[in-house]
Write a sequence for this structure.
């Protein structure tokens, strides 16, 4: 049972344009969401997070949007740069319910075309 | 920021042998650490939650006798894959909860295990 889903396994975007990565979840107890960037044979690197009490969080080129009613979140990267090419995972936890475990999505491979 | 050091980065072992993977928090104390496994082109699957000074909590379907976890100190957790078989070949990653940060989870660099 995949509680966190990233339906696009890959995405290609022109350098300088906006990259939009999507993530859907099914567990309504999830209240904290994170995005990680991962290169092959390395551990994930934290990018940005959002609590369920917010609908938007911005950090530099990265913005995460949360639509609780749709159980959907998205990561916007603008402008996209070649160094952004990596696999992006969204993750969720049910922190307020005392559960710190992260449930990861299946990942989206982002390729930025120079 | 918080750093988690994981060793070895890659290991090749023969079937039937055991392999130990170490995960250390370098500049903070980690009362809780998490062990994940990733198959090629798949998601990170949580295997177990390691708590300092107590038994690990394993996820459903994970054999606790095969994947031994020890969290003997606030800075070290180890995962031992016992009697390894080729199907245990995978990428193993540890993570620690760092209460001092907003995001709270820092990952190690992972260990590529190949059982031949």
């Amino acid at each position: 049972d995949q509680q966190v889903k990233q339906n696009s396994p890959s995405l290609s975007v022109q350098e300088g344009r906006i990259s939009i990565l999507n993530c859907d979840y099914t567990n309504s107890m999830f209240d904290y969401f994170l995005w990680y960037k991962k290169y092959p044979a390395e551990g994930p690197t934290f990018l940005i997070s959002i609590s369920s009490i917010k609908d938007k969080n911005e950090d530099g080129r990265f913005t995460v949007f949360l639509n609780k009613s749709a159980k959907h979140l998205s990561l916007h990267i603008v402008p996209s740069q070649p160094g952004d090419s990596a696999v992006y995972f969204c993750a969720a936890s049910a922190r307020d319910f005392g559960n710190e475990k992260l449930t990861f999505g299946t990942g989206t491979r982002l390729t930025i075309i120079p | 920021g918080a750093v988690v050091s994981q060793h070895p980065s890659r290991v090749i072992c023969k079937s039937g042998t055991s392999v130990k993977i170490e995960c250390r928090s370098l500049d903070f104390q980690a009362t809780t650490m998490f062990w994940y496994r990733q198959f090629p082109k798949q998601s990170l699957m949580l295997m177990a939650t390691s708590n300092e000074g107590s038994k690990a909590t394993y996820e459903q379907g994970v054999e606790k006798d095969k994947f031994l976890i020890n969290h003997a100190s606030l800075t070290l957790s180890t995962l031992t894959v016992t009697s390894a078989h080729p199907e245990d070949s995978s990428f193993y990653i540890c993570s620690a909860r760092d209460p001092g940060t907003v995001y709270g989870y820092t990952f190690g660099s992972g260990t590529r295990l190949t059982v031949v």
